[in-house]
Here is the input.
Amino acid sequence: MRRFTLFVVLVAFTFSCGGQWPVLQCVAWANMIREYSEMVPLTQAVEMTFSGRYPCELCKAIAQKKQEENTKLAATFKHEKKVVSPGLVVKACSVTITPQFFVVRSSLFQTRSDTPPTPPPRFA
Here is the structure.
């Protein structure tokens, strides 16, 4: 059960960091190599896959989605900077301190007057 939980957490972390795109790209490359190797030798199929001249529909869709994600991310970082006057900051940060009085009991600070027993008691 612990391994399954760790696996689920790892998958969730990977997807939250955008890890689905490399996984989908690997799936697309494997599919492209399989399709191209049916028409040409395997070495040429691998070369065609990674050259970038013959992208498949999945590769195009992945590139488009990654571009859309990057533009959304860039749009969230663009925000208007607001200038706050120092007077407002001082008013917002001022704290009213009310004096608090504590009652100190003198019995808490009394010393003991009895001496310890001699010799020390023995426990069985």
Remarks:
- The chain has a mean pLDDT of 80.
- The chain is about 60% helix and 0% strand.
